[in-house]
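Course assignment 3, question 2. Fill in each field.
Student: A.L.
Task: Predict the tertiary structure for the chain below.
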Amino acid sequence: MRPLGLRVGTHRLRGLRVRLVVAFALVAAVTATTTGALTFREARTGVLQQSQDAVIELLRTHVTRLAPELVLPAGRDELRRFAAEVAGADPSGSWRVLVVYRGLQATSVPDDPFEELTPALREAVGSRSATVFQRVNRADHTALVVGMSVGFTSTASSGWPLSGLQVFLTVPQTTEQAYVDALVTAVERAAVPALALAVLLALLAARGVLRPVRALRHATRSIAEGRLDTRLAVDGSDELAELSHTFNETAAALEESVAELRGMEARARRFAADVSHELRTPLAAMSAVTDVLDEDAAGLDPDTATAVRLISEETVKLARLVDDLMEISRFDAGAAVLHLDEIDLAESLRRTLAARGWTGTVEARLPEPDALRARVDPRRLDVVVANLVGNALRHGSRPVRLSLREGGGAGEGPGAGRRAVIEVLDSGPGIPDDVLPHVFERFYKSDAARSRTEGSGLGLAITEENVRMHGGTVRAANRPEGGAAFTVDLPLRRDEPTPDEPTRDRAPGERTRDRAPGERTREERAWREWA
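Answer field:
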């Protein structure tokens, strides 16, 4: 499992604010880089083009002026002098000139290897009459190399047309490189403020976007907590305003629907409780009458005796159903109360079996007396165990086993982390897989054709509610060796509750109360009544 701090940090890194800032920064960086590159390219081309045109124009002018003074055919000294005169045309003195004529060559600087001249440029000058140029990069500098062929007519040569004279010029572009470097620096300096401005704009945009989103998040959380009257303030007419308006409409519709459902649910609970309450009095009279008829059934004719027994059985089922409906109504209304008492759990389970005559029928695996004690509601624990064991006897096969053991782990304080585990096992066919998720639902029957059963269809639902009131859980499963297994997990509480520490984590509407000393006999009577 990842640490909480890492998860929170990852969530923050993936937040909308961070994504907006990163997006704006990337857009600004790409825009600044693209703009800077295009600007640099155009400015560099302009600087170099201007320098190149100036050099070429100046070279042509001086070669055109000095070439008629050169007497051809010329020797190496004349070529060297001509090269020096051409190089002297540059006021800065940075020109280096190479003159080639019929295999002879001379430079304006003695012993100058003229390494900038490439074979490609030499070949281009020899094959065309136009001036050609090339930029050559050396380790320490960049140079512009210009080459041209010179053709003219000399009067000293009896007017014969002469050709074959080639002039090459190399000029270091130090000044131009300085201009380009300054331009790069300017672009870099402009990109940093642009990026900072983009981040600032991103923060402002994120703030404007996140404010309604944050309000929507708080409103959604408020709706989830049950405050259905939560609404958002609608400002403006953009997409976020439309979202807020839609949220308000949805919340209003949800509030109306929930109010209607709650009203229907309340009316349904009230109806079930009222019907159950109204049925108790006539059922009590019917039970008294059927008890008398049962005693006299032996003296009646067979048909009448069968009818009397049938009426008696159905009256008992109806009375049990009414009692279960009353109990479920109390759970739904939040009126169920826990009467907590510290008891011996094993002894309580033995009493449950004995009160219903199951001592010889159910195999009990219980610890020694006083080995496992806890604060529970004895009557509700009796209902839980009786419902589970009765369900195993009705729908499973014998033998049925009831076991109690201690489970759980370490904790802080007396009894913290300790659990009491009650298991009811049968040897029947088990529970179908499609039925397992529904066994604790009310009135659920796995076989739709079995519309008449001995139970009310509410026993397991009441069991789950009683276990939940104690802060425990109940589970149903199939055993690998066959049969169903119901497991009840209850927290063991033996320490006395304090005003600052509740007896248990209660569900909304549920109440708990410690048992008064005089109520133990009332619980004994309750056991007999439920039996």
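Instructor remarks: The mean pLDDT is 76. The first strand starts at residue 96 and ends at 101.
Grade: pending
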